């Protein structure tokens, strides 16, 4: 009976030891499962963040390409506008050098009213040919209702006063 009791106590001690090992293994398994779940969550968060950053980078590249294209477009349109304006002003200046077609008076009693000397106001107004290219480039071109083009130029006289013709 003593042998059986010692055997039984030995078996109980082994069972307790096995149960403790089993509990330790189960605890480690739960910890491992929790760590795996945490790592999966972190991987998913990082993947989502990476995707957002990739999308943001793609948008930024698209925006940069569009901005580059628009800058070039504006640059070429501005150059084209300045070239057209330059050509138009050059033509107007050439046209100013050409003799004008003079029509005689419609009535016999009409006297030629062209003054011999320019008036003081006309002496103060600069002509297009007297201006530097930078002043001529500041010309504003408009068209009257009858189809006649007019070049309006802002310039400074020698005294520094601003005038327009």
UniProtKB/TrEMBL annotation:
Gene Ontology molecular function terms on file: microtubule binding
InterPro entries according to UniProt: NUDE
Keywords: Coiled coil
Domain of life: Eukaryota
GO BP terms: cell migration; centrosome localization; chromosome segregation; establishment of mitotic spindle orientation; microtubule nucleation; mitotic centrosome separation; vesicle transport along microtubule
Entry keyword annotation includes Coiled coil: yes
TM stretches of this protein: none
UniProt GO cellular component terms: centrosome; kinesin complex; kinetochore
Coiled coil feature spans: 1-70
Region (Disordered): 111-131
Family annotation (PANTHER family): NUCLEAR DISTRIBUTION PROTEIN NUDE HOMOLOG (PTHR10921:SF1), NUCLEAR DISTRIBUTION PROTEIN NUDE HOMOLOG 1 (PTHR10921)
UniProt record similarity statement: Belongs to the nudE family.
Name of the featured protein: Uncharacterized protein
């Amino acid at each position: 009976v003593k042998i059986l009791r010692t055997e039984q106590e030995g078996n109980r001690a082994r069972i307790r030891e096995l149960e403790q090992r089993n509990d330790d293994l189960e605890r480690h398994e739960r910890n491992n499962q929790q760590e795996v779940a945490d790592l999966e969550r972190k991987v998913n968060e990082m993947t989502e963040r990476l995707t957002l950053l990739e999308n943001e980078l793609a948008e930024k590249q698209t925006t940069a390409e569009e901005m580059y294209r628009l800058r070039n477009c504006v640059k070429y349109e501005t150059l084209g506008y300045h070239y057209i304006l330059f050509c138009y002003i050059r033509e107007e200046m050439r046209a100013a050098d050409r003799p004008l077609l003079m029509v005689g008076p419609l009535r016999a009693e009409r006297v030629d009213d062209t003054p011999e000397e320019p008036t003081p106001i006309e002496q103060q107004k600069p002509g297009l040919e007297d201006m530097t290219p930078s002043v001529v480039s500041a010309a504003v071109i408009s068209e009257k209702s009858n189809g006649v083009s007019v070049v309006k130029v802002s310039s400074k006289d020698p005294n520094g006063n601003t005038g327009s013709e």
